[in-house]
C-alpha cells in the first residue's frame, strides 16, 4: 500500500474536525489520509455533538492542544488545516495565527467549502477582513477543483494554490450497474437533509409525478439534519411506497446501499467536490447532480450521468425519466463513472500530497 513516509508525516500536524465515525466529506477525507500516513499527528477542532457548550469547550481545548503540541514538537514544520466556510473560517483563522505567527510554521489551508463564495461576497467587513488576511497569508491553499482554484485567485492574492483531488478508496470486484427488469430503478441520496442538498426539490418532483413513478422507481434517502421535515413531507404527499428513509448510514450499511442501488442523485445548490459522488462513482454508479462547485469536472452530461442546474425541477424529472425509459444507460454510464473516478483513487492522490509536503519542506 502506498504510504507517506514517517520522515515526512512526523513533520506534519493535521487540524480538522473529528474523522473517526465521521459524518461528512471532510471527515471522510481526513480518515482516508490517516490510513496512508506512517504517523498521523492530529488535533480535532470540532466534534460530533449537538451541545454548543461542548463544541465551544472542545474548540478552546484544541487551541491549547495546538499551542502545546507545536511548543513541544519542534520537528513539526507544516500545519495542514482542513476547513470550510462560515464558522469554520473563524475557528481555523485562530489556529492559523497560532501556527504561523507564533510558531512560524508553514500552513496549508485545505478548502472543502461548498459555500465559501456566498460567505465571502455576502459577508460583512469582519468576514472580508478575516478571509483576506487568512487566504493571503497561508503558504498554500489546496482547492478541490479548478473552479475553486479560480475563486481564490480571483478574489484574493494567495501565495500559492494547487488543485488536489478529493480522495476515495478503490473498490474491489465492482462492476457497472446492470438493470434487473423485475425491480424498480433505485435512486440513492446520501447527505445532509436540508434545502442546500436539494432533497426537498427531489421529493416535490416525485410527488408531482407519483402516479407515474409508483412501481417504476424507489428513492432511498440516508442522512441527518431536517429529519422531521423529511418524514412529514413523505407522509403528507403519500410517498411511502416510493421513498424509504434510512436515517444516518455508515459502514457496512452504507456500502450495501452503494452496491445494491442503481443511480446516485445529489441535486445540491452548492458544493465543493462531493466525496459522496466520488464514492458512488467508485461503485460504478451513474450520477444525477447539479452544475455547482467542481461537480462538472467529474459528471459529464449524457456520459456518466445527468448534469442539471440547481432548482431545475424539469431537469430532475427528465433525469429520473431517462433511466426509467432507458435502463440500458445504467451500464454505459456506470462504466464511464468507473473510468472517470480513477484520478481520485489513493494511488493517484497520495503521491501528489507527498510532493506538496516535500516542496514545503524544502
UniProtKB/TrEMBL annotation:
Family matches, as CDD domains: GT4_PimA-like
Domain of life: Bacteria
Annotated organism of origin: Neptunitalea chrysea
Stretches that traverse the bilayer: none
Protein name per Swiss-Prot or TrEMBL: Polysaccharide biosynthesis protein
InterPro entries xref list: Glyco_trans_1
GO molecular function: glycosyltransferase activity
Domain Glycosyl transferase family as annotated: residue spans: 175-331
Amino acid at each position: 500500500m502506498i504510504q507517506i513516509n514517517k520522515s515526512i508525516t512526523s513533520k506534519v500536524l493535521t487540524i480538522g474536525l473529528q474523522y473517526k465515525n465521521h459524518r461528512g466529506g471532510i471527515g471522510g477525507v481526513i480518515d482516508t489520509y490517516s490510513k496512508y500516513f506512517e504517523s498521523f499527528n492530529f488535533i480535532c477542532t470540532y466534534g460530533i455533538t449537538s451541545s454548543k457548550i461542548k463544541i465551544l469547550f472542545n474548540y478552546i481545548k484544541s487551541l491549547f492542544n495546538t499551542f502545546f503540541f507545536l511548543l513541544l514538537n519542534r520537528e513539526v514544520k507544516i500545519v495542514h488545516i482542513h476547513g470550510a466556510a462560515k464558522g469554520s473560517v473563524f475557528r481555523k483563522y485562530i489556529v492559523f495565527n497560532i501556527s504561523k505567527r507564533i510558531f512560524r510554521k508553514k500552513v496549508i489551508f485545505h478548502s472543502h467549502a461548498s459555500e465559501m463564495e456566498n460567505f465571502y461576497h455576502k459577508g460583512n467587513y469582519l468576514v472580508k477582513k478575516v478571509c483576506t488576511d487568512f487566504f493571503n497569508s497561508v503558504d498554500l491553499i489546496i482547492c478541490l477543483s479548478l473552479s475553486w482554484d479560480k475563486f481564490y485567485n480571483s478574489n484574493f492574492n494567495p501565495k500559492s494554490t494547487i488543485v488536489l483531488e478529493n480522495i476515495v478508496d478503490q473498490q474491489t470486484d465492482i462492476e457497472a450497474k446492470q438493470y434487473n427488469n423485475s425491480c424498480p430503478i433505485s435512486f440513492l441520496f446520501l447527505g445532509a437533509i436540508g434545502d442546500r442538498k436539494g432533497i426537498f426539490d427531489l421529493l416535490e418532483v416525485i410527488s408531482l409525478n407519483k402516479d407515474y413513478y409508483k412501481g417504476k422507481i424507489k428513492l432511498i434517502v440516508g442522512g441527518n439534519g431536517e429529519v422531521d421535515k423529511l418524514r412529514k413531507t413523505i407522509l403528507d404527499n403519500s410517498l411511502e411506497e416510493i421513498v424509504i428513509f434510512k436515517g444516518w448510514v455508515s459502514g457496512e450499511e452504507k456500502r450495501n446501499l452503494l452496491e445494491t442501488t442503481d443511480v446516485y442523485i445529489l441535486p445540491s445548490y452548492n458544493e465543493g467536490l462531493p466525496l459522496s459522488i466520488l464514492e458512488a462513482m467508485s461503485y460504478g454508479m451513474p450520477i444525477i447532480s447539479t452544475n455547482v462547485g467542481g461537480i462538472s469536472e467529474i459528471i459529464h452530461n449524457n456520459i456518466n450521468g445527468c448534469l442539471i442546474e440547481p432548482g431545475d425541477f424539469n431537469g430532475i424529472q427528465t433525469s429520473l425519466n431517462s433511466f426509467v425509459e432507458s435502463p440500458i444507460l445504467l451500464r454505459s454510464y456506470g462504466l464511464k463513472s468507473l473510468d472517470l473516478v480513477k484520478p481520485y483513487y489513493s494511488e493517484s492522490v497520495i503521491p501528489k500530497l507527498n510532493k506538496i509536503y516535500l516542496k514545503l519542506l524544502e
